Amino acid sequence: MSAAVKSYAAVDLGASSGRVMVGRVGPDSLELTEAHRFVNRPVRVPEGLRWDVLGLYAGVLDGLRTAGQVDSVGIDSWAVDYGLLDADGALLGNPVHYRDSRTEGVAEKVWATVPTRELYAATGLQYAPFNTLYQLTAAHASAQLSHAERLLLIPDLLTYWLTGEQGTELTNASTTQLIDPRTRDWSYDVASRLSIDLDLFAPLRQPGDPAGLLREAVLEETGLTGPVPVTAVGSHDTASAVAAVPADGERFAYICTGTWSLAGLELDAPVLTEESRAANFTNELGLDGTVRYLRNIMGLWLLQECVRAWGDPDLGALLLDAAKAPALRSVVDAGDAAFLAPGRMPERIAEACRASGQPVPVSPAEITRCILDSLALAHRRAVQDAQRLAGHPVDVVHVVGGGTRNALLCQLTADACGLPVVAGPAEAAALGNVLVQARAHDLVGDLADGRRLLTRTQPLTRYEPRGDAARWSEAEARLARG
């Protein structure tokens, strides 16, 4: 192997699993292998739904031990959730899960102080009941928050445990609804009006900034030889995934698929219009001054919950049966917050179809087809709306993330959007994580250079649109009437 090739550990934490991937990067090579995968299983305790963050940290250490000697480590994860530390730097309880019920009814209290139009104009973030701003408002009178000296978002918390250094990475901070996307700094006015103490947050970091060195105790536990730097990456997994979209030029839309579908555009500036707010688009920050203008869609969570309810049948066989089921027979709104909580997903989908006067899917194949048709329809709406609201036309849709392995969903998305879909890479978040680390070590140039490297080195599949576009328009109209 060439001496110019370096190895990077990408810790990539999703809502249901975590993994440590090793990326080997050279001037014209990029290889990714899985060192360790571990379960991310939330725990319901008397006070609510919590993350097992200690189990996650143990998984990270196990993964670094398996990965072997690396030139740097980077961590990305889901957004919005955080841990609180006391004055000694000790964790005050397990972090609350974003699907916990504590934020129910909180948004209305926030809006009474900062109306929705003002909040959107200041922060550019779509309404989601679990945004950090609402979580902090819900926790306002709690003993934990009153004793907290520091708040660290999940990737920053794990980085702190690895290095002993504290920071708040910007792309993830932008999901808190406390960042101004124009200044790329805190929205001090919003925080002040809602009595949120921004001093709880560690100083902001940019992707590529140094985040410390692995502590001696971590080196001993993992068997690594120091010094091993930790590099701040796009620590919101969507920011890393969008960095790994193998696009050429600017006329593209992206859909990051997994538990969620994040569908939208990469822009140079936020879109803060009232029309954008009403369409529930968000402006999150990306690499190199970019804005991730996107809509959150419930994603493959719907299918994951159904599969769990059905006793984990073979997914490949289920998708084959779903492909044979009647197309667009019934659809649901894949962005509906009614599907946010876990449990009874097949029944809830059936109930939604019944309530809208559509045929009720009964078999697993029919329900699966309903879910995938509904996701494709939601992808279509998001891509069309984003182009219109931003005045930014596109010629192709890039699908990255775990959903790229679902050929039926990719084809249905091409059909629904009426645009070619380029699917891949599947491990986009980990690859984006690796690319930022490689940039920090001068192995890769700018964002476009990294994307060219991905195009040359990663397997991609192209899906051409087919079928009658009018059928998708009719399904959308049916859903609107429902």
UniProtKB/TrEMBL annotation:
One Gene Ontology term of the molecular function aspect: glycerol kinase activity
Gene Ontology BP, a term: glycerol metabolic process
Database matches in Pfam families: FGGY_C (PF02782), FGGY_N (PF00370)
InterPro entries: ATPase_NBD, FGGY_C, FGGY_N, Rhamnulokinase
Record's keyword terms, sorted: ATP-binding, Disulfide bond, Kinase, Nucleotide-binding, Rhamnose metabolism, Transferase
Sequence ranges assigned to domain Carbohydrate kinase FGGY C-terminal in this UniProt record: 253-440
Cross-referenced CDD domains: ASKHA_NBD_FGGY_RhaB-like (cd07771)
Annotated Gene Ontology cellular component terms: cytosol
Carbohydrate kinase FGGY N-terminal domain ranges (all copies): 68-242
Family recorded in the similarity comment: Belongs to the FGGY kinase family.
Name of the protein described by the UniProt record: Rhamnulokinase
